[in-house]
Amino acid sequence: MRIGDLAHATGVNRRLLRYYEEQGLLRPVRLANGYRQYADKDVAAVRHIRTLLAAGLPTAVIARLLHCVHDEGERMVPSSCPAMIDNLRHERARISETITQLQASQQVLEEMLATALSARA
After folding, report:
1. H or E stretch covering 37
2. Which end of the chain has the lower number of beta carbons within 10 A, N or C?
């Protein structure tokens, strides 16, 4: 299938599909005319990429983990390969740290806003 067909099948625009290719997440065959030729398995790969992105994983991590997921029915299932477990733990810790930092920033903003509002009254 061509890129437009993949975009239609996945709901992901062509620009993003090209970006996924640049990041090494998709590897379409290049035809003699330069067109990309995608396989049916690429539909599932895009679905997996979207799920991993929604989990907060950066594309560099997804590139390392994409081979560690498969489908069971309509659901993406991570395998227990060591790379998957280690990377998920690392990303969970990174996201937790980011949440902590954002909560601290939110508290500072709350205090600044309270001070600004009380000075205005």
Report:
1. strand 36-37
2. C
Q: Which residues pair with residue 70 across a beta bridge?
A: 77
pLDDT tens per residue, range 26-79: 999 999 999 999 999 999 999 999 999 999 999 999 999 999 998 888 788 888
Rg of the chain on CA atoms, in Å: 20
46-70: string of b/e by CB count within 10 Å (b at 16+)?
bbbbbebeeeebebebbbebbebbe
Q: State the Cα–Cα distance between residues 103 and 53, nearest whole angstrom.
A: 22
The token pair at 79 is: 């395998």
Asked whether residue 80 carries a pLDDT value surpassing 90, the answer given is no
Burial of 73 (0-12, 13-18, 19+ CB in 10 A): exposed
DSSP for residue 72? E
